[in-house]
Amino acid sequence: MTQQSIAELVARGCAAHGVKRAFGVPGGGSSLDLIEAFDRHGIDFVLCRTETGAALMAAADAELRHGFGVAVATQGPGAASAMNGLAHASLDRAPVLFISDGWTDAQRALDAHQVFDQHAMSAPVVKAAARLESEDPALEFDRLVDAMLAAPWGPAHLVLTGANAKRRVAIDEPAPPRPAPASAPQPRTRLQADATALLARAKRPVVLLGLEAREPRTLQQVARLVQQLHCPVLTTYKAKGLLSDDAEWTVGHVTGGAAERATLDAADLVLSIGLDPVELIGPVRCGDTPVLELALFARPVQPVRAAASLPGPLAPALASLLPECRRSQWSSEEIAALRLGMRERLGCAGGEDGSALSPQAVVEVALDAAASPRPAITVDAGAHMFSAMALWRADVPGGALISNGLATMGFALPAAIARALHDPGRPTLAFTGDGGLMMCAGELATAAQQRARLCVVVFNDGALSLIALKQRNRGMAPAGVGWSRADFADVARGFGLRAFSVHDEAGYRQALRAALDHDGPSLIDVRVDPTGYQAQARALRG
Asked: Comparing C-alpha atoms, which of 396, 467, 383 is closest to residue 431?
């Protein structure tokens, strides 16, 4: 047993769970003690420009590592600024340990400056909160970790005062990290019989794959099941890349809209694996086709109406179904036709006069220009996500990151920084709208300071195009959704990035080659014609 500070306890606990980086904007209190302790335990501190950006980076890091991420902020405005990132972590199921400075009781008695109840503010979006002020702070810390890693994954909030960070306590020798708590399996005698009967009768099953399937052991079983069934697979945005988009059975996305109807209408069984209600806008319309649902636990909000359900850990549930999996009646030609049909429905007109590119061309040219290994992508909220998610082919888990549960703007750049630091051997493309980038432009400086190997591709159309589309669909005159186009290349150069402004395909290809060959961050400001978004939205959403 040794004497260590609370800051040391936190750093040691994070390191034991595989944390390599903490993201944040420090203040003058506990965050300085944490930075020092992190360094002693091999955890790099990434200085961000906004607390929201730090929380989003931590969430992306958690998603990529299948563990929890760490974000650090000062008290008061620092903690308040991080809330959007924590809301993303909550609804996109990312375990993030958010550590903010706090006030002691003695400080509260003397000063009201910046003082408010930080735990009350974060309570709606975190799964647990603590202050580590008990006689057993190690147990408190373990409970925070357990809460984050229990299904569904989500963030926790640690308020750590400067005085408590320095407090020395007796700490046992480090123990190996405990496995993440799993959902308790439900009794399955009847449920298993119902599930196997449905699967045994199916001749033309279709798989819907959601974010709960991203755990590696689950993915192994999913791949085996799909290979045995040889059937079409629809993924949610959050599940993109869990099965390679290059695989012959991967058709496209399910969003709760119209694009997937042709695939679902041809099915005689829908096998839903790990689908979380936050992933969809509206329910999946399966008609009279029976649905077999595998989910970590039963939820009050149902994305699909299931004829049979197997709640509990997914990997053993999938393993139990494998003996019932027989090659389906789907031909490879039928699956290929469904894939092609979905892509054709998302065709996007625009840019005919050569003054701007279509959103579709921005994605397809980037995919064509990409070398091996294929870049990972991060995608912001906005109309450009229609093209980015539908047309880019992610070939590895974590190869496409998006904020879908919260769908927050300003996600792509922070997530790209985390992605590039996690895997510097694979370039990262951040597909973002001009509106989204303006919400987090300061993080360009973070990318430059970290020499992150990423390229920000800006769909610059001078408007909140998705909102403009909704405005137009309501028969309203254009107002309050447009601005003069910014020169993001100039902005990026000011932060130290390599930057390009383009308006045609030839210039865009040339810029992509230079950006993808660069060993640091780049930005390409692409003038985009948004006229194709209407057709894409109609094809996706109906």
From this structure: 383
Task: Determine the 3-state secondary structure of 156 from DSSP.
Answer: strand
How is residue 239 written in tokens?
Answer: 């599940």
Identity of the amino acid at 341:
G
Domain that holds residue 387: 346-541
Number of H helices, E strands in the chain: 23, 20
How many Cα atoms occupy the beta-carbon half-sphere of 376 within 13 Å?
31
Residue 89 confidence (pLDDT) above 90? yes
Q: C-alpha dihedral over 147, 148, 149, 152, to 10 degrees?
A: 90
> Which of residues 296, 315, 340 is at a domain's end?
340
Q: Are residues 281 and 384 in the same domain?
A: no
Q: Specify if 100 maps to a domain.
A: yes
Q: Report residue 186's pLDDT band, with 50, 70 and 90 as the boundaries.
A: very low
| DSSP for 488-527, written as a single string | HHHHHHHHT-EEEEE-SHHHHHHHHHHHHH-SS-EEEEEE
Q: Are 464 and 418 members of one domain?
A: yes
Summarize pLDDT for 17-51 with one digit per residue, the tens.
999 999 999 998 999 999 999 999 999 999 999 99
Q: What does the block give as tokens for 497? A: 């990035």
Peptide bond preceding 152: is omega within 30 degrees of 0, i.e. cis? yes
pLDDT digits (tens, 9 = 90+) for 99-129: 999 877 777 666 767 778 899 999 999 999 9
**pTM of the predicted model over 0.85:** yes
Structural domain total, the chain: 3
